[in-house]
Design a protein that fits this description.
The protein is α/β, with parallel strands linked by helices. Helices cover 36% and strands 16% of the residues. It starts with 8 loop residues before the first strand and ends with a helix. Bound molecules: pyridoxal-5'-phosphate (PLP).
C-alpha cells in the first residue's frame, strides 16, 4: 500500500529534490531488486545485475547529453571537491600553466586547490562586482600553450550561469557543471572535461560524474596515486574499486525520468518556465525584491535575491518556512534568499512560491 505523504516544497541547494516517481520506484525495488531477492545495495558490484545498472546509467547519460565517442563517462567519488585536486594533479604538467575563470566561491576553491600543484592564474574574474555576472567570452585571457582553462558553468551560491561557452581551440576547456548539468542541452564536444557532483540534478550525493575526452588520458601526469588517476577509472569502467552502487542506481533512474519527460530540450523549457515565475515577480516588484545577479547572467537553477532590509528579509524567510517552503535561505557565506529550482523541482512549487512572494509584498510594502 502506498503511503499518502505530503511532499515539501523543496528548494534546497544540494542535496536537493529528487523526482517523486524515482523515489517510488526505488521504494518498490528496495527489498527485492528485480528478482534477485536483495536490494541493489546488497548486490556484488561484480555481479551481472549490478553491471547492468552501471552500464545502463552510462549509456543513458551518453544518450541524454549526446556525448560523442571521443568522450568517456566515469563515476567517481569524493564529490566535485575532489575534482578540484584531481584536475591539476592529472593535467597541470610541469612547465605549463592553467587558467581559471573566477565567478564565485566554487571557482575560488578550485583555483586554490590547483595552486598547490603548479602555476595558475585568472583568465577573468567578476569578484569586484560581487560575482553578479559572468565575464564576456571575448574578455577571457589565456595562453594557447596552457594546460587547460577552467570554468564553473553555474554558480550555486551567487546565482549566475554561463549562457554560452567559449571556443578555446586547442586549450582544453574544463567545466564544473555540478549545479546545472542536465538542465539544458549542451555541446559536449566543446569540453575536454566536465564534472558534477550528483546531488543536484543527477541523484543523491555519493557519486561524481566525469565526462572526459579520451585523448587527455594519454598525456596526463603519471606520478600520482592510483585512485586519483583518471586513467585507472577509465581502464576499469569505473569499477576499479567498489563504486557507490546505490547512488549509481538512483542516477540511472533519474536519467530515465529525464528521458521520459522528453529529454533536455523539454527540461530546459520547463526550467525557464519555473525560473520565470520567480524572476518576473522580482522584476515587477519595484525594488521590493532585489535580484543579486545581473539579468544577462542570472541562473535558471539558483535564483538569488535580497529584500530591502535585513529585518524584512528575516520576516520573509521565517514566513516562507512556516508556509512549507524549504531551503530558501541564501548560502551561509552571503545570506539573502536563494531558490534552487533544479530539474526535479515541480513547476507548481515555483508557481506557489511566486504567489507567496506577491502576497508577502502586498502585506509588507
Ligand atoms: C558548483 C559547485 N561546485 C562544487 C561543489 C562541491 O561539491 P561537493 O560537495 O560534491 O564536493 C558544489 C556544491 O554545492 C557546487 O555547487
Amino acid at each position: 500500500m502506498k503511503l499518502q505523504v505530503q511532499r515539501a516544497y523543496n528548494f534546497n541547494a544540494g542535496p536537493s529534490a529528487l523526482p517523486l516517481s524515482v523515489l517510488e520506484k526505488a521504494q518498490e525495488e528496495l527489498i527485492d531488486f528485480r528478482g534477485t531477492g536483495m536490494s541493489v545495495m546488497e548486490l556484488s558490484h561484480r555481479s551481472r545485475p549490478y553491471e547492468e545498472v552501471h552500464n545502463q546509467a552510462i549509456s543513458s547519460l551518453r544518450e541524454l547529453l549526446n556525448i560523442p565517442d571521443t568522450h568517456e563517462v566515469l563515476f567517481l567519488q569524493g564529490g566535485a571537491s575532489l575534482q578540484f585536486s584531481m584536475i591539476p594533479m592529472n593535467f597541470l604538467q610541469a612547465g605549463k600553466k592553467a587558467s581559471y575563470v573566477m565567478t564565485g566561491s566554487w571557482s575560488e576553491k578550485a583555483f586554490s586547490e590547483a595552486k598547490l600543484f603548479g602555476e595558475v592564474y585568472h583568465a577573468a574574474s567578476t569578484k569586484e562586482g560581487n560575482y553578479r555576472s559572468i565575464p564576456k567570452l571575448d574578455e577571457l585571457k589565456y595562453d594557447k600553450e596552457d594546460a587547460y582553462i577552467h570554468i564553473t558553468s553555474n554558480n550555486t551560491i551567487y546565482g549566475t550561469q554561463w549562457k554560452d561557452f567559449p571556443d578555446t581551440g586547442d586549450v582544453p576547456l574544463i567545466a564544473d557543471m555540478s549545479s546545472d548539468i542536465l538542465s539544458k542541452p549542451i555541446d559536449v564536444s566543446k569540453f575536454a572535461l566536465i564534472y558534477a557532483g550528483a546531488q543536484k540534478n543527477l541523484g543523491p550525493s555519493g557519486v561524481t560524474v566525469v565526462i572526459i575526452r579520451k585523448d587527455l588520458l594519454e598525456t596526463a601526469n603519471t606520478n600520482i596515486p592510483t585512485m586519483l588517476k583518471y586513467s585507472t577509472h577509465s581502464k576499469n569502467n569505473s569499477l576499479y574499486n567498489t563504486p557507490p552502487t546505490f547512488g549509481i542506481y538512483m542516477l540511472g533512474e533519474v536519467l530515465n525520468w529525464a528521458r521520459d519527460l522528453g529529454g533536455l530540450e523539454t527540461i530546459a523549457k520547463r526550467n525557464e518556465e519555473k525560473a520565470n515565475y520567480i524572476y518576473s515577480v522580482i522584476d515587477n516588484s519595484n525594488g521590493f525584491y532585489i535580484g543579486h545577479a545581473n539579468q544577462d547572467s542570472r541562473s535558471l537553477m539558483n535564483l538569488t535575491f535580497n529584500l530591502k532590509t535585513p529585518e524584512l528579509e528575516k520576516k520573509f524567510l521565517d514566513l516562507a518556512k512556516q508556509e512549507g517552503f524549504v531551503g530558501v535561505n541564501g548560502h551561509r557565506s552571503i545570506g539573502g534568499c536563494r531558490v534552487s529550482a533544479y530539474n526535479a523541482v515541480p513547476v507548481e512549487a515555483c508557481q506557489a512560491f511566486s504567489e507567496f512572494m506577491i502576497q508577502f509584498q502586498k502585506e509588507n510594502n
